[in-house]
Design goal:
It comes from Pedobacter ginsenosidimutans. With 258 residues, the protein is α/β, with parallel strands linked by helices. The chain is built from ten helices and six strands. It has a six-stranded mixed sheet, with helices on both faces. Strand 1, helix 2 and strand 2 form a beta-alpha-beta unit.
């Protein structure tokens, strides 16, 4: 592991300090990140790919936000089936001084576990050993990026020891991220009667690099026959988008200082 990465992380952790919302604080910009894309399809189901489901849900969410929250600027990391590097996704949000980052993904399980279903939402954190596989899967796309080792200062997504250094990066927005993630999960449960797998802290690279409250929401298991049909249906995608929308509305109401 390069010393440069350690120095970068330590400096970043010192520079990013969460400030209490100022009087009159408003959420002005939200970045929506459809997971994967282009030559990075993500997980695959029996008839669909994660990159396509995440994009459709994200676009529906963006349309709802523009309609019901017109004063909030909505930025997408991608609007079509293109390849966007993980570092660039966070960079887009940071450059826009975004107030919230929402990454949309689908979950998956290997053969023998295809009965598993439900929704879960991730926030940046030092994941436990039992959660390494999930974090490594979400970070694996960087291997498809040109010169990824130099771009990420030697970070190796397949090496669990890489997460030791990532854990040094104190997420200044941890509490707000967790609160927002809980609102999303509660919305899934109450509105859509989905099975909740809870809020989890994991070393997901795209969230680690975001300088604002950030979540990655897994909208269902593409490896589960029942859920794959649901997350590909118009009704299912509309329900998911509306549930995330309601969570955003509640978060915005709670966080804004009058």
């Amino acid at each position: 592991m390069k010393i440069k990465l350690l120095i970068t992380i330590l400096l970043f952790s010192l520079l990013i300090v969460e400030k209490a919302p100022a009087q009159g604080y408003k959420i002005k910009t939200i970045v929506i990140d459809p997971g994967h894309g282009g030559r990075k399809p993500g997980a695959s189901g029996s008839f669909s790919k994660e990159k396509d489901v995440s994009l459709k849900v994200a676009l529906k969410l963006g349309a709802l936000l523009k309609e019901q929250m017109p004063d909030v600027k909505i930025i997408f990391t991608r609007k079509t089936d293109i390849d966007v590097d993980l570092y660039r996704r966070a960079e887009i949000a940071n450059e826009a001084n975004a107030d919230l980052f929402i990454s949309v993904h689908c979950n998956s399980m290997p053969p023998g576990n295809k009965h598993i279903k439900g929704v879960e939402t991730l926030v940046a954190g030092s994941h436990r050993l039992k959660e390494q596989d999930a974090a490594i899967r979400e970070n694996a796309d960087i291997k498809l990026e040109k010169n990824y080792k130099s771009k990420y200062d030697g970070y190796d997504p397949s090496n669990p020891s890489s997460f030791i250094l990532l854990s040094l990066l104190k997420n200044a927005f941890r509490d707000k991220s967790i609160n927002f993630a809980k609102l999303i999960q509660n919305s899934y449960i109450k509105r859509d009667e989905r099975l909740s797998r809870g809020v989890k802290e994991q070393g997901v690279l795209v969230l680690q690099r975001c300088g604002m409250p950030a979540v990655l929401t897994e909208v269902g298991f593409i490896s589960n026959t029942e859920e794959e049909k649901y997350i590909n249906s118009q009704n299912g995608q509309n329900e998911i988008a509306n549930s995330i929308l309601e969570a955003i509305k509640t978060y915005k109401k709670n966080i804004e200082v009058k």
